[in-house]
Specification:
The structure is a single chain. Strand 3 and strand 4 (233-240) form a beta hairpin. It is built from 14 helices and 5 strands. The protein has a domain at 159-310: Trna Endonuclease, Chain: A, domain 1 (3-Layer(aba) Sandwich). Helix 2 (28-46) packs across helix 3 and helix 9 (148-154) crosses helix 10. With 328 residues, the chain is α+β, with helices and mostly antiparallel strands. It starts with 10 loop residues before the first helix and ends in a 6-residue tail after the last helix. It has helices spanning 11-14, 28-46, 51-63, 81-87, 92-95, 98-101, 106-116, 123-128, 148-154, 156-182, 247-257, 259-269, 290-295, 303-322; strands at 197-199, 203-207, 224-228, 233-240, 272-279. The protein has a 5-stranded mixed sheet, sandwiched between helices. Helix content is 46%, strand content 9%. The longest helix has 27 residues, at 156-182. The protein binds zinc ion. Zinc ion binds at residues 138, 140-141, 144, 150, 155, 157.
Length: 328
Amino acid sequence: MHGGFHPKSSTLRLYASRKEGGRGLVSVIATIRDETSKIHKYIKDKAPTDDVLSDCLRQWRTEDEMLEEGPSWEDKPLHGMYHRNITEVADLNTSYQWLERAGLKDNTEALILAAQEQALSTRATEAQIYHTRQDPRCRLCKEAPETVQHITAGCKMLAGKAYMERHNQVAGIVYRNICAEYGLETPRSKWETPPKVVEKERAKILWDFQIQTDRMVMANQPDIVVVDKEQRKAVVVDVAIPSDGNIRKKEHEKLEKYQGLREELEKAWKVKATVVPVVIGALGAVTPKLEEWLQQIPGITSDISVQKSAVLGTARIQRRTLKLPGLW
Ligand SMILES: [Zn+2]
């Protein structure tokens, strides 16, 4: 009724703990199981000194098999596919921490989890899973099957504006934290595009600035460059929100991409330069290294803040693109 649970979402996941990526509801079955085993233990402890209870224990033994565990959402072919996909590339605890720490509205949380579970009605799922006569191709680009993955991180029609907006929101958080660190003026609203250059005695910050170098380098326009003039250090930051299975590859790609620029900056500006990728999966997955990367950026940027921003951006894209009825 309030959009807190998508009708096609995993009911098993409803009862998994939030730490493990579930919704954290207490199930009647689990409660009965828990109480039963407690009573069981009590009877076992007291049976040696009580005839009635020892008789009772004899009867219980035959019912033991009833306490078996049921199936888990992670093993389900469709509902658990995302979880299995990110298991190898992501830090699972951090990837699901937004469930406990981001304080999202119930219906936004339900939307993100439904997307992870392929439970959202995209044209590809309608055609391939429900076998309707729907054209499975993306309604925007008509080039690829319209899957959740395509809508959230793979559609070229969304790249220029929708993905850019989500990307800039995340990069903006990092940018404002850097400004705060050096006492520089921060953009008033989070929707305001930062100026290309801000500079004070201690630091200079470039936003999406094309840097001229002596030697031609392929990539010379990272999202953010911070130059700490006192410490003679420069940090090149580049943000990406790829499809969740690609986070590790993307991190590596960003790191490689800016090595040329890093060398040129060291030569031209006489600073020690580092490249820092900030990569978050469109549905929240992060690699075990994210926190380490964030610590290399001046100012304090928490992993949950950028992760929350990325996930909210994805929710917005899904709502708009799939024209979800009502809350979804
Ligand atoms: Zn498309």
